[in-house]
Protein: non-specific serine/threonine protein kinase
Organism: Sesamum radiatum
Amino acid sequence: MASFFAICFPIITTAILLTIAASPTVTANSEAEALKSSGWWSSHYTKSVSDHCKWAAITCDVGGNVVEIAPAPGPFAGWLGGRLGELNFLALPHLLRLNLGSAGLNGTIPAQIGVLSKLTILDLSFNSLVGAIPAQLGALSKLTYLNLPFNSLTGVIPTQICALSNLIFLDLSSNSLTGAIPTQIGALSKLKYLYLSKNNLTGEVPPDIGQLYRLLFLDLSHNNLNGIIPPKIATLPVIKYIIFNRESKPGNPVFGLVEASRYNELFLQINLSHNNLSGSIPRDLFELGTSEFGTVDLSYNALEGLIPIDILCELPKCVVFPNAKLFNYSGSITSSNKEESHRNYTTIFVSIAVLFGLLFLGGGFFLLKIKAKKSNQEPLSTSEGDIFKIWNFNGKIAYEDIVKATEDFHIRYCIGTGGYGSVYRAELPNGRVVALKKLHRLERENPTYDKCFKNEAEILQGIRHQNIVRLFGYCLHNRCMFLIYEYVERGSLFCILRDENEAGELDWVKRANVVKGVAHALSYMHHDCDPPILHRDVSSNNILLDSKLKARLADFGIARLLDPHSSNQTQIAGTRGYIAPELAYTMVVNEKCDVYSFGVVALETMCGSHPGEFINSMARKSGENDIILQDFIDRRLSPPANIMVASDVIRIVSIALACLNPNPKSRPSMKQVSQELLVCRPPKIARPLNTISMLELMN
């Protein structure tokens, strides 16, 4: 009875407040006064209260009622931000959308928001909000989108949230929430996206999550959850993305979680990194990573034993290092029993000692002969040092195979050139085709260069993402320096957009997916890698498309790799036409430079050519940029007829324009861009493309 009262009382209280708020005494004038009193707008706007519908970030319906508050991300003229609780929400009963992400707000989330009976979208992400999530939010019966990540919210997840029967998207990640995930969460029958990562949640994963039959994305990583993972989660009919982390124990039935028949359709991430897992790795685990999208991350544990080379080479996205006692070898994986493993090692060591004793004299004689023979050959080790590490696909491929496959980097195998070097196509003896990027030599006079290059290259080798070209290995030698990448068949986005036939094949859906893929890759590099990695040369030349026209980001981190002694803040790199304008005077390279370059690429993908003239007109703030969206996008394709495809085009162009903001602080992060592109919701401007101007999207 007490728990029933605890759930119902806030909702009943909110309903009483709602009745008061909906009374006829609420007028447009009272709405304007409430907006003015909040202190969120500058005097430039508030001096004209009667024109509040024309204020920045305000949208009104035909009756003059405020239906949306949505400031652009970051600071802009006229918007001051402030305490969220300063706005009197009782005076805004017609509000449909409260998009306050990255709005510079602080304080607590007021319980008054619970009276907004018409509210469908509540976005308070990327602010400085503190305190608990009010239980009164459970009264927002029409809410479909609740986005509260990247704040400092504390307390438990209120069970009243589970009463939001229309909720499709729920993101409470990157806060400091505690307690258990509400067991009633299975009541959110329409939920498609659930993000609760990077909190301090405890207890077990509720079995009722297995009742969320429409769930597409589930992220519970970086918490303190325990117990087993409910098996029903993997049987959800449309689930595409699962992430667990830190809450799995050695006894967890992770390996039997997913039916084998679903490996190829499930975008599965099993992330068990940064635990204290020990023992060897069951071979069955790697089957989870053999699907096109699968990822298995076992790094930073205390695992030991041997991993078959053939397994490592077949996994497109498997991360197992560093583990201090884990090695790659062409043999089989050892038993998971540590005592048995220890006995095996002891036997091996004793045998080796006996053999060494028997062969010592013969070995010494043999070494003398080898030394005499090598004196007539070119030495492999020079005073400058040699570092050579190639991912041995079958345990036999060596440097000579690489050189032979390209006839010592003959021009006939060259498939592209760039500022950092030339790219060659090479077919290795085992039939595998790879791309070799032969780099220009830099800083060889620095005695620590080789070591720094090796360290940087091994960091880049650890990157595993479906939209990033995989780096297999590298060679650093006094005669040559090259990187070995997977070969991506269709070539660069730049070339495809400039070929009439291939550009026609890249329809609007595929183009939208290209932009989304690049956004997800950059978000991963900026926000999920430790340390974060800047690309520093995002351009259509560095976006490759595979046989299915899926985007793969290439050349990530090469600027840093070639100059490992420089900091990210001091070395400028990039391609003309994609470089952020602030680099002309600040010389400060950060992630917002990648964001700007992404904006250029996104527009280029939509309009079919480099948008240089349009970007210049933006900088001049001339009327030239007030063109119709339908005239801006690639005319080689018919305008999108499907409303969802058209919505994607509008959303991508709008996001690209935000990324091109001349003020770096006003650009969104790639995390925000990635999340925005993941969510399926109508754009803020839902009209035919021939009625929307680019200037309208910019504002």
About this structure: Residues 490 and 545 are 5 Å apart (CA to CA). The mean pLDDT is 73. The radius of gyration is 29 Å.
